[in-house]
Design brief:
Elements lengths: L2 H13 L2 H8 L3 H15 L4 E4 L2 E4 L1 H25 L8 E6 L1 H18 L4 E6 L2 H9 L5 E5 L7 E15 L10 E2 L9 E4 L4 H13 L5 E5 L2 H9 L4 E5 H9 L4 E17 L6 H21 L12 E3 L5
Parallel strand pairs: 3-4, 3-5, 7-11, 8-9, 8-10
Antiparallel strand pairs: 1-2, 5-11, 6-10, 6-11, 6-12
Helix pairs in contact: 1-2, 1-4, 5-10
Amino acid sequence: MELRQLRYFIRIAETGSFRGAASRLCVAQPALTRQVRALEDELGVILFERHRRGVTLTEAGEEFADRAAKILDELDALRLDMMSVDGGVSAALSFGTSHVMSRMLFGRLTESLKSEFPELKLSLVEAGPKNLVESLEDGRLDYILVIDHERRPQFVYEKLATDHLHLIGNPDDPGFPAGTVQLKDLSDLPLIALRLPSGPRVALEREAVRQSVKLRIEHEVDSITVIKEFVRLGMGYGVLSRPAVSDDVREGKFQSCRIRDVGLDRMLVSRRSRSVGPADEKFLSYLHKAIRQLGKRAGNGYAKIPNAMAQPVPAADR
């Protein structure tokens, strides 16, 4: 039995598919399948039940997963302890995302990782999508979380969650739409939106072109705060993601309705050439957990998680 077999097994269990695990691990799917079969042959049990949508753990697989995860966690901790002996180099990672998501994620990630992974030096960056992609490309960032953008072959993409754009209006506006709206319903409304190439604006324009809907963008701004202020002054209706305005809606400052045909896929992006080490695995595990917690907290107002863990999406699929 080899350690890589244990890591492969855990990733398959998390993603629920051989394809998803292969993409996340940057390993060819046939090689992954061979390693799991070899592991099952050695153990004399079947670890996964194969079905059309992926795989699920058998009873033996669930027990093995629990034991294997503990072994890998202990080995990771041992490796980091040895790295820091006598002033050695500690593990370091850098992660960047938007202003909205940084507010929701940075505190959670830092608190969780520092308590259980104190040797990890995590650098957190808040920036716009263009700067995030450039920083990832030149190696200043290891991972970024952005709304789906133009795919590049040197990157690996993993969808962590999906939410929708929302129309934002004053709470005392009697004509504000109830429930949900379609993009075509916005054609006559004065809209206030972020400038291109912001993720929400790209998604809005892409869907408008697909549906041949002409939108009336009255104001283009660089700040979510400015959009909210313009809406408050009655200068139009804002177009923002739900997380950007959820607290304000709960406090009664605005009302919102979902634009049901404009989805926002939030993608975790990394360089294809990056090797995934113990520090990466620990960070990614906590990031997935934080995203799932956000989805539960916000209910159907935010973050529909694709699977129990996120499924990677190869660049060639889009």
